Amino acid sequence: MGRVRTVFEKSVDGRRGSSVPSSGFPKRDLDEMIPKKFIRSTPLNLPKLSEPEVVRHYTNLSRMNYSIDVGFYPLGSCTMKYNPKMNEIISRFEGFTFIHPYQPEESVQGALRIMYELQEKLKKITGMDHFTLQPSAGAHGEFTGMLIIKKYHEDRGDFKRKKVLIPDSAHGTNPASSAMCGFEVVELKSGKDGRVDLAELKSKLNDEVAALMLTNPNTLGLYEKEIEKIADLVHDAGALLYYDGANLNAILGRIKPGDMGFDVVHLNLHKTFSTPHGMGGPGAGPVGVKEKLRDFLPVPIVDFKNGRFYLNYDLPKSIGRVRSFHGNFIVMVKALAYVDFMGEEGLKKVAELSVLNANYMRKKISEFLKIPYNDFCMHEFVASGEELKKYGVKTIDLAKRLMDYGFHPPTIYFPLIVHEAIMIEPTETETKETLDNFIEALKKIVEEAKSDPNLLKNAPTKTPVGRLDEVRAVRKPKLRWRGDDK
Ligand SMILES: *Cc1c(COP(=O)(O)O)cnc(C)c1O
User: Fold this and answer.
1) Hey, which end of the chain has fewer CB within 10 Å, N or C?
2) What residue numbers bound the domain in which 130 lies?
3) Residue 20: pLDDT band by 50, 70, 90 thresholds?
């Protein structure tokens, strides 16, 4: 497919999208209403197109997109599950979309109730005592949680805890958020089994450590079986345990991070609790804490007293606001709708099926691709394209070729501890046929890699845009269309 012309290139002078009959009222001069200096002297450069041209232009553009509504999206770590349309419909109710955060509390009791109920449900799901819904994403939740941990230690007069321990398998946002809060990041080398190595942990724990950040199951999809021992070690050293809740899908309704010993957790509502996401949001990253950390939560928190919901600013030790107003409210509406529709049994099924699907795929895929930590996994697993290198093929080539078979590629080159990583998270919303079709495509591609590697290296060939020069795109980014670009 050639380059699609922009609406400006398609513009034809004199063409119009619509014509509205005259209202019959006399026309007033613009400068009667607007000071002259604000009136344009040149016409606005708008494309001139007919209505069907505009509709077709944007409809055709939208068809080039790939989304969960189009097909399978096994993007590891990102939990690209199908998002029930009922949540979308509910979130568009006028009572939700036509309110403003400056409205008096009495006039938005319903909205506050939704936030309060969501907090209550998240407490129950995670085993934490208090929640803030303010943060806008997982990374933002991490930043909020680490600020809370910092303030907790400082409030006790303990100023030497400047270090945060993070496994080498962690998501990049973990060290980034810690560093942004002024902590020094200390890397923990994973053990041979891909999990936390207790000896390594002990050797790095001391009175300068503020916290250990973990996700459980970790980014390899492996459950930290020694989590209670880990929690004891961390707490005995006077540090706190932070839970990156991006992988909550695997344990939903089954086990709680609060019971594992975590002091602070963030959740990614857009992942586990079903909001369409990708390309920057909108998301929500609520943070839950144990009782001893309540006073440090961002203000305001949503509370209930004497029969009414209200915004509680009375937390003198609060880290302050972490964003404007109260967070991405519509994402909260979808999350609550999701939790209520699923019910307790439904949420348990999410965990069961996401784990079952992942293990089914792991078993089948291990027959033709290497899986370095090939252990019973939770909701995702990581394969490696290392053995294809001898055919001159890299993981990125395999990922690009998957697009020719109509699939969104998995996450690649993460986590960093697996060479040529291929991280697959099927989620619970996919049928066995879909999983089988993907496995079959992947198997064919591995065969192609051996017999005709150029098929992979030239891929994708069936997508609207072919292989991009990613290095050049980074070095010489073109962020604006000027009309002269080729
Ligand atoms: C997605 C993810 C994050 C970051 O969450 P965002 O909502 O994208 O900011 C952190 N950790 C893990 C393991 C993740 O998968």
Assistant:
1) C
2) 85-342
3) confident
Q: Are 368 and 433 within one domain?
A: yes
Mutate to test the pocket of ligand 1, among 264, 268, 323, 328 (most ligand atoms within 8 A of CB): 268
- The number of domains in the chain is 2
Tell whether 238 is covered by a domain: yes
- Of 298, 313, 342, the position where a domain reaches its end is 342
CATH of the domain at 457: 3.90.1150.10
pLDDT tens digits for 414-453? 999 999 999 999 999 999 999 999 999 999 999 999 999 9
For residue 1, the model assigns a pLDDT of 52
Residue 462, pLDDT score:
93
Question: In this structure, are 159 and 199 located in the same domain?
Answer: yes
Q: Is the CB of 246 under 6 A from ligand 1?
A: yes
Sign of CA dihedral 150, 211, 272, 123: negative
- Any domain includes 39: no
Q: Which atom of ligand 1 is nearest to the CA of 285?
A: 7
The Å distance, Cα 63 to ligand 1 centre, comes to: 28
Residue where one domain finishes, among candidates 320, 342, 364: 342
Confirm whether 263 is domain-assigned: yes
In a domain, 408, yes or no: yes
Query: Which mutation among 75, 77, 414 tests ligand 1's pocket best, with the greatest number of atoms within 8 A of CB?
Result: 77
264 contacts 126 by C-beta, under 8 angstroms: no
